[in-house]
Every structure is written in C-alpha cells, then in structure tokens.
Specification:
Blueprint: H1 2-10, H2 12-27, H3 35-45, H4 57-69, H5 73-95, H6 101-112, H7 115-122, H8 127-145, H9 151-164, H10 172-183, H11 194-206, H12 208-216, H13 220-234, H14 240-254, H15 256-275, H16 282-289, H17 292-301, H18 315-326, H19 329-352, H20 366-379, E1 383-387, H21 392-401, E2 432-438, H22 453-458, E3 459-470, E4 478-488
Parallel strand pairs: 1-2
Antiparallel strand pairs: 2-4, 3-4
Helix pairs in contact: 1-2, 2-6, 3-4, 3-21, 5-6, 5-7, 5-8, 6-18, 8-9, 9-11, 10-16, 14-15, 15-18, 20-21
C-alpha cells in the first residue's frame, strides 16, 4: 500500500487515470444490456470461424467469460471493462517507447479522459478487442523496426492477425507499416527484409478463419462490408449532415480540446510534407503512419458518406501520443474539466435517465420486456418468437429468455448473422408465432392498427394484441406492439 501511495505521489497524473477507471467500474452495475452486447453475445453462443457482420473475436471473449463466470449482464460489461483496461496498460507501454516520463503521463491522462475509452468499457463491440490488438501490434512493430528484435516481427504478425479477426479495419495496420517503410529513408531497406514478409505471411495465416468462412459463404461478410458502402461513396453526393455529424461525434469521443489538437498537428504535418517536402522524425513518421490513413482517410469520406463514430477509433492510439508532444498544461487542464463534466452528465443519464431515448439503441427496458413476453408465451404455448428490427429485439430476448428467438428471416428478409445460425424455417411450418415490434417513438398507448405485409404473406392470419408498455410516464418508457400470427407458411 505504501508503495502504491508513493507511486501516486510521484506521478499525480496516475490518480486521474485510476479515478476515471474507478468511475467507470462503479457505473457498470447501472448499465443495462445494449443491443450490441446481446448480439455479440449471440456470436459467442453460436461459435463459428467468422460471422456475417464482423469477425468473431468479441463473441469468443464473451463466450470465455460466460463459461467462467456465468451468463449475466454484469459479466458482459466486466469483460469489456477488463479488456479496455488492458488496452490502457498497453497504451502506457507504447507511449513509453516515444515520450519522456512527463509526457507519458500526459498521454495517459488524455487517453483515460476520453469518452472513447468509456464507450469501449461499457459496450460490447468488435472495437473492444480491435483497439487492444491494434495497440499491441504497434508496440511489437516498433521493437521489430527500431530495436531490430527479429522475433517481434513474428509476434506482430500474429497480433495484427488477431486485430483483423476482431474487425476488418485492422487491414490498415499492415498498410500503415508498409507506408512508413516506403516514406522512411532510414528503414526503407526493410521492405526487402524476409522478416517483414514472414510477419505479413503470419498476419494472413492468423486471419485464415475469416477468409475460410467467407469462402464457404460466398464472401458474404466481405461483400456486406465493402460493396454496399463503396456503391454509396461512388455516387459522390455532397452530404453536409454527414460531415458535421462526424465532427460532432469526434468532439464527443475525444473531448473538444484533444480533437482540436488532433486537427492542429495533422494540418501542421501535412502542410510541411506538401509545401516544404519535409517529413518528421522517424519515430513521429511511424506514429503518423498508423494515424493518417485511418483518421484523415475516413474524414475525407465524411462529406459524401455517413462515417460511423467508431471507424476512426484506432487512429486515436498513436494520435494521442503525438498530441502529448504538443499539448500544454493549460489545455490539459481544460481537457480534464470538460471530460469530468461530460462523464458526470453521462452518469446522470445512465442512473436517472433524464433525457428519454427514442430509439432501440438503449440499455433500458429489455429485461422487463423479456419478463412480459415470457408471460405472454405462457398464455399462448407452442408459439415461437420473432422480431424484425435487424437484430436488436431478437438478440435481447434470446439473452434474457435463454431460448431461440428469430429475426426477419422468418418472413424471408435478410437478417444479418441470424441467416447463418442454421435454422430451418420449414420445421416451423404450420405453427403459430408471436411477433414483437418496437414502437421507437412511443407517442400513444394505442395499438399500431396495421400489419406488416411481409408478416401477412407468411401467416394465415395475424391479430394484433394489446401492446406491452414498460415504465409508463417515466424517462425509461418503452412500448412494443404485439401480434399473434397463426399457421406459419414460409415462402420459398
């Protein structure tokens, strides 16, 4: 204990880092299950080499934790928190390779104060393991390149592969590495080093399960992640809302001070390169190689395409290290002040729910819905359950009811990874079903009064029952329409 207090006294910034993590840990029990949590938990309960939306690393980790500690919302949240805490420690080790002791702690405070780290700590997404393996990969590549430790080429190849097995964004790791070597006058010779190519071969080998799953399933995941989005970008339509929305997301995730520093040093280095043809030091160039393609690359898309808030997250790892080289004490102080305000507001929303969320992307109401649906099925035995909102309601009901719940593949519509769970709809022919449909806006207690034509086409008759209304007259109010569907006749 004395050693710990001495460490805090020696590095006061450590108290800020630990304080933010303690805050997140204390907030965990108040966090309900998000739809993403339930969906990626579904991954882990249906083990596969890969999955339709993403590779399966987050699902595997949730499966491991549930096998050890059991199935509960808290176990899911703790899994995210522990992995993200490991990311913070890995980030500390990475920062120590580039910064002085004083600036290391600046970088740690900057990173720990972001909403970005809070989101990773609270919500199961592929980004949770991606950021961990991304951070480890850059550390190992540094040792391979700058310290000339050949075995780290092997380790880096594996961790880059594990990052790709978390999320496809990790393809930017080998791209960043090669970009650095191309622009580096000192280390360009490594482009012909066998160790580089051994590392890249190991990267590809580690990602083999993802490629094999895609090969077996007509490259469905790769097509989903690329073809549709490429088509949208190629239309080249100016979308101001997408641009300003991306800026708003980054201001929120990074805190405005850190985001402003990102913009400032990005402009500075790009201007030097394009106007003065001057590149930074080798170590800074290395950091920029893993920052620019992701941060600047995705930002260039924002005027034409809706770039999701998490796409730029990997760039934050080296971006924060560069920011720590520039930020002064006054700006760091304001970063902390704004961050504390943001986090207090976040905690107030989580605990007291001051602002109603008119969306299914919420952590409240799902367990209560499951209890009501269970009662409903007692009244209507031998029915199966399904929903049609992508994955959200179906995944949540699966988690809390611990039974099979179907998605819109029941009526022949694409249903993300629900299409790949091996369900044979013919086995349900002739049975009855209960269809749960979320009323996101919840403007009245009335029934919906209309039936989805896709549902009507697949059942002999459909009768709307009384809606399920939860936590009425509160900020946590949720409403779900309920339909009793008779004699299922799946369309071929």
């Amino acid at each position: 204990m004395n050693k710990f207090l001495a460490l805090i006294k020696k590095h006061p910034a450590l108290s800020w880092v630990l304080g933010f993590q303690a805050f997140r840990l204390l907030l965990l029990p108040f966090m309900g299950l998000m739809p993403q949590d339930a969906y990626y938990y579904l991954y882990g309960q249906n083990l596969s080499l890969s999955y339709f939306d993403h590779p399966g690393m987050i699902g595997y980790l949730l499966r491991i934790s549930s096998e050890i500690f059991g199935q509960s919302v808290l176990v899911v949240k703790l899994t995210d928190f522990i992995i993200t805490s490991l990311t913070l420690y890995s980030f500390y080790k990475l920062s120590s390779l580039f910064l002085s002791k004083h600036r290391i702690w600046k970088s740690m405070v900057l990173m720990a104060s972001t909403i970005f780290i809070s989101i990773l700590s609270f919500n199961s997404t592929p980004d949770v393991p991606l950021i961990l393996f991304w951070t480890l990969s850059i550390s190992f590549l540094y040792k391979a390149v700058f310290e000339q430790k050949k075995w780290f080429w092997i380790i880096a190849g594996i961790t880059m592969g594990l990052a790709f097995n978390s999320k496809y964004t990790a393809l930017l790791l080998p791209i960043g590495l090669i970009a650095f070597l191309v622009f580096s006058s000192k280390y360009r010779k490594l482009l012909i080093s066998p160790w580089l190519w051994i590392s890249l071969i190991l990267f590809v080998g580690t990602t083999f399960p993802v490629w094999w799953w895609n090969y077996q399933n007509e490259f469905a995941s790769f097509a989903f992640q690329s073809t549709e989005r490429t088509g949208s970008i190629s239309k080249f339509e100016i979308k101001p809302k997408s641009f300003f929305g991306a800026i708003g997301h980054q201001l929120f995730l990074l805190i405005p001070i850190l985001f402003a520093v990102f913009i400032a040093f990005t402009f500075k280095h790009i201007k030097k390169a394009l106007v003065k043809f001057k590149l930074p030091s080798q170590k800074t160039l290395f950091l920029l190689a893993f920052f620019v393609p992701t941060f600047v690359g995705f930002f260039l898309l924002t005027p034409f395409y809706w770039v999701k808030m998490n796409w730029m997250m990997p760039s934050y790892i080296t971006g924060v290290i560069i920011a720590a080289m520039y930020i002064n004490k006054k700006l760091l102080k304001w970063q902390l002040i704004i961050s504390v305000v943001f986090h207090v507001a976040l905690a107030a929303q989580v605990i007291f729910f001051f602002v109603p969320i008119k969306s299914d992307d919420t952590w409240t109401g799902w367990e209560e819905l499951s209890e009501e649906v269970a009662k409903l099925q007692e009244k209507h035995p031998d029915t199966f359950l399904f929903s049609m909102d992508g994955y959200k309601t179906s995944a949540q009901l699966r988690f809390f009811l611990n039974k099979k719940v179907y998605a819109q593949n029941v009526v022949g519509l694409n249903a993300l990874h629900f299409d790949y769970l091996g369900d044979d709809m013919e086995l349900l022919r002739g049975t009855d079903a209960i269809f749960i449909d979320s009323d996101k806006r919840f403007k009245s207690d009335q029934k919906k009064g209309e039936i989805d034509p896709n549902v009507k086409e697949n059942f002999s008759s459909v009768v709307e029952l009384e809606p399920i209304i939860l936590n009425k007259d509160s900020g946590r109010a949720r409403k779900f329409w309920v339909f009793y569907c008779s004699n299922y006749q799946p369309k071929k």
